[in-house]
Amino acid sequence: MNGRIKVRVEVGEESFEVEGSIDEVLRALISFLEKVYPSLEMARRLTLTVELESLLESLEGILAFTPEGPVILIPKEKLEKELSIRELILLHLVKAYVGFKLGRLERDSLSVDELLKATGGKVGAVAGRLSEMVSDDYIERLGRAEYRITTYGLKHFLEAVLPKVKSLTGGS
Question: Which of 21, 61, 126, 138 could form a disulfide with 153 if both were Cys (CB 3.0 to 4.6 A apart)?
């Protein structure tokens, strides 16, 4: 297989056919659909997304995958010293999200117990930060004591937390 695909779409009287790489075809298809459905362009501009590929690139040198699962390459003691509990929670929820998206973990969420162990925080402090972060829409609560990162939380992580985490990789 040479990595090329061919797509044909018909919408009412309009038809469209394209052949190329997956990225080329997707871009052309989205452009065609935006012409046929102008509101699609507006919806696309208003939709917040975080591309998995760019997230993975940004985590290079910070997160790695072993046969046992994803690991954070920065020593835990250094992370606990330099990052807030909120930042640690986001980092570990990003690890779960990426591990799940890549098929290395069975779920994209972590329990309160897993977050306590991962962050080294006290129960009250972690519970308080989780509640704040749910209110901020950075994470969502699933069931009784399970949390996962939201798309908005991923965006916040990339803009506010990741630069701080990256600063810890120098001279470790």
Answer: 138
